[in-house]
């Protein structure tokens, strides 16, 4: 069956994509970067982080959950949207305990990279300094709840052969945190442990005893800002 | 009526401190104290973190010599991951770390002598305070070249750090059991054969000229330099197993003021059997002492002067020649003249430059075997000779690889009592019988503190500069006079 293509506009640029594709993916196909912290290509979108918010025909929508339609007018790189994104990033920083100087994900962290992109220079909101646990009881992975932004990427993306997730939310409200199924995690392969660390946009999931192996200069965002692989 | 003078804060050193001086009715010095008034608490907040974070986390104690903390922590964790000490690492691992450390020694010593201390010597202790800084040196026709030389020497050291640790300040090169990168041939050639002045050969030449500069100053001002502050003390440092100066690794050695050995060949994993720490109510900085001598007599000096007093020779030709001249001055016995610390520091700067040049020729730096490990342990101690002296890092971990104990004894902490003694010496010599505090008087106290190149930020495990203030109070604590040095 032949695919239907639709035309739409992002920031005045004429674009074309398959009908039904989410805006974030359709934009990527057209060389336009829309930032995200929770979305992963190939996984069902969640709309958890709201960083991908754009104006669709004048209304704010999440680009990861809204399918593109014919004639849609999308506003992405505008002051209003960038202000929203920067605010969300700042809120995420003060809500947790994010100490980049000693974090091994520094240089490869998506939250940090977005903070640089949106020029987060001074704290506007009061720090909450929550008291959170570092769970190192698993043989392969460390969960540092201080850094978790609850994006659910690990819950959605790290699964066994029976499609059972290794991770789940536990507790409620502001106390909600990522839990790991210890029985399953004890049998976790090195490859899946690596995928867990890589899928985490921040430094909340870490492989034990391997920190700082990547020299400065070879980390993901050492030379080019986040999104530059899309906006070439 | 007795009075109390407070000097707060102290300038051109790292961190925040103050000096109080009590005078009796006849204006004789009754008591002097160097107070360290900042608190940091790294020992506490590293607890609960994964052990491999420690070298990157604790180096934030300092922006001048973070490499020392980075490497001391990595050395302690080498023990924990079973790589052991000394030759436990791969040749590339050890030599890359050594190169990083020599680079930091070179830049830190250059910074201390040229940027912080040389204005006192070149312009005079009683010169206009606005003149006593490195910027004034660069504006002066007479000293411009020298100031540029100091700045470029520091830059070269920083480049060495960048290429070994990834960044000039707060890099990540050393990891438990080794290093995360080697030195590429291009990076090696940049340091070895770079355009003048940024190459190892020029740095050896400039380091030699800095030693000559001090010797020349000394020849003209011998009486002053020798008598500014001197008192007998014990001396402690790491020494290579054959008695050579080694700033990266060795065995602990302590000698008394006459050169008699207090202990030697001590494996630093056992440091707690030899070194104790005393807490005094008026300072956040502890007072370490040699246990066998007790709190009263066991205090000791660390740093350039102590290192040249404990070692038998320097394993690089030009520095060895200067070492021999230095030792001749005291007939081979330990040198207890405070301002000679600068002389010793410049000999060490020459040593570091020679070692960098030699090491850059070593093909092991281009090796790919970077990390090693063995049987894991729960506890490890890492010692290193930081520019300011012996640095102790001690960690233990729990079953889940999280740090549950950290003890840091930093160089300036080791020098706490000697700095207090030096302040007392200078205050007695300069202030006895004086009621009005003058700026040069205040600077003289700072000059002797600066000789130790104290890092008070590190020593309390703070941020910022260390400006000096003085208060003159009566016996009831009422303020009579107050001076604050310019920042």
Q: What attributes does this structure have?
A:
heterodimer, A: 232 residues, alpha+beta, Ubiquitin-like (UB roll), Alpha-Beta Plaits, 2 domains, five-stranded mixed β-sheet, 6 helices, B: 487 residues, Cytochrome-c3 Hydrogenase, chain B, five-stranded antiparallel β-sheet, four-stranded mixed β-sheet, 17 helices, globular
Textual characterization of the structure:
Chain A is of the alpha+beta class. Chain A has 2 domains: 5-77, Ubiquitin-like (UB roll) (Roll); 85-207, Alpha-Beta Plaits, CATH 3.30.70. Helix content of chain A is 22%, strand content 17%. Chain A has 6 helices and 10 strands, in the order E-E-H-E-E-E-H-H-E-E-H-E-E-H-H-E. In chain A, a hairpin with a 2-residue loop joins strand 1 and strand 2. The relative contact order of chain A is 0.15. The model of chain A has no long low-confidence stretch (mean pLDDT 95). Chain B has 487 residues and is of the alpha+beta class. Chain B contains 17 helices and 16 strands. In chain B, the strands form 5 sheets. Chain B has a 5-stranded antiparallel β-sheet with strand order 3-2-1-15-16, with helices on one face. The longest helix of chain B has 33 residues, at 91-123. The model of chain B is unreliable at 457-466 (pLDDT under 50). Classes of the chains: A alpha+beta (232), B alpha+beta (487). Chains A and B meet through loops of A and helix 2 of B.
């Amino acid at each position: 069956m032949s695919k239907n293509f639709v035309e739409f506009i992002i920031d005045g640029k004429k674009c074309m994509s398959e009908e039904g594709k989410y805006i974030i993916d359709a934009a990527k196909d057209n060389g336009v970067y829309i930032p995200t912290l929770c979305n992963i290509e190939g996984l069902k979108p969640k709309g958890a982080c709201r960083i991908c918010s754009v104006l669709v025909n004048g209304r704010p929508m999440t680009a990861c959950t809204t399918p593109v339609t014919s004639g849609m007018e999308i506003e992405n790189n505008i002051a209003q949207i960038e202000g929203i994104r920067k605010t969300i990033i700042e809120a995420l920083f003060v809500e947790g305990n994010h100490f980049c100087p000693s974090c091994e994900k520094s240089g490869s962290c998506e939250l940090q990279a977005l903070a640089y992109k949106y020029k987060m220079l001074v704290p506007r909101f009061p720090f909450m300094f929550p008291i959170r646990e570092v769970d190192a009881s698993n043989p392969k992975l460390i969960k540092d709840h201080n850094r978790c932004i609850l994006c659910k990427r690990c819950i959605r993306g790290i699964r066994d052969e029976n499609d059972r997730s290794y991770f789940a939310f536990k507790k409620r409200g502001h106390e909600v945190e990522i839990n790991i199924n210890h029985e399953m995690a004890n049998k976790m392969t090195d490859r899946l442990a690596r995928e867990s660390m890589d899928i985490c946009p921040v430094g909340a999931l870490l492989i034990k005893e391997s920190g700082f192996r990547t020299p400065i200069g070879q980390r993901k965002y050492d030379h080019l800002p986040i999104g530059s692989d899309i906006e070439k | 009526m007795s009075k109390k003078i407070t000097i707060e804060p102290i300038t051109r050193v790292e961190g925040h401190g103050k000096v109080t001086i009590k005078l009796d009715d006849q204006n004789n010095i009754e008591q002097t104290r160097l107070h360290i008034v900042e608190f940091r608490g790294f020992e506490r907040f590293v607890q609960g973190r994964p052990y491999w974070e420690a070298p990157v986390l604790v180096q934030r104690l300092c922006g001048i010599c973070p490499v020392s903390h980075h490497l001391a922590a990595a050395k302690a964790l080498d023990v924990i991951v079973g790589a052991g000490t000394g030759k436990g690492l791969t040749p590339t691992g050890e030599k890359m770390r050594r190169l990083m450390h020599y680079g930091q020694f070179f830049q830190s010593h250059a910074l201390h002598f040229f940027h912080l201390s040389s204005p006192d010597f070149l312009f005079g202790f009683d010169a206009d305070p606005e003149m006593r800084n490195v910027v004034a040196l660069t504006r002066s026709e007479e000293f411009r070249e020298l100031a540029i030389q100091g700045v470029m020497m520091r830059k070269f050291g920083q480049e060495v750090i960048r290429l070994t640790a990834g960044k000039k300040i707060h890099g990540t090169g050393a990891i438990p059991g080794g290093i995360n990168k080697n030195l590429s041939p291009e990076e090696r050639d940049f340091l070895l054969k770079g355009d003048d002045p940024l190459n190892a050969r020029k740095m050896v030449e400039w380091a030699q000229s800095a030693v000559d500069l001090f010797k020349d100053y000394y020849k003209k001002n011998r009486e002053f330099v020798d008598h500014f502050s001197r008192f007998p003390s014990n001396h402690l440092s790491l020494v290579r197993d054959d008695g050579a100066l080694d700033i990266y690794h060795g065995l602990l050695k302590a000698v008394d003021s006459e050169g008699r050995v207090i202990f030697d060949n001590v494996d630093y994993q056992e440091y707690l059997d030899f070194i104790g720490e005393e807490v005094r109510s008026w300072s956040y900085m502890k007072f370490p002492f040699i246990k066998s001598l007790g709190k009263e007599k066991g205090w000791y000096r660390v740093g350039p002067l102590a290192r040249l007093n404990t070692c038998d020779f320097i394993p690089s030709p030009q520095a060895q020649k200067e070492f021999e001249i230095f030792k001749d001055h005291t007939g081979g016995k330990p040198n207890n003249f405070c301002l000679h610390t600068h002389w010793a520091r410049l000999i060490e700067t020459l040593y570091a430059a020679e070692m960098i040049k030699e090491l850059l020729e070593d093909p092991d730096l281009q090796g790919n075997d970077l990390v090693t490990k063995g049987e894991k342990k729960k506890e490890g101690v890492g010692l290193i000779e930081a520019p300011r002296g012996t640095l102790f890092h001690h960690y233990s971990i729990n079953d889940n690889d999280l740090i549950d104990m950290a003890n840091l004894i930093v160089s300036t902490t080791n020098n706490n009592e000697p700095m207090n003694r030096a302040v007392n010496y200078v205050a007695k010599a300069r202030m006895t019988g004086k009621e009005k505090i003058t700026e040069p008087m205040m600077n003289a106290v700072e000059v002797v503190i600066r000789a130790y190149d104290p890092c008070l930020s590190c020593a309390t495990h703070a941020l910022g500069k260390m400006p000096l203030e003085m208060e003159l109070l009566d016996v009831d604590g009422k303020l009579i006079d107050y001076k604050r040095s310019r920042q």
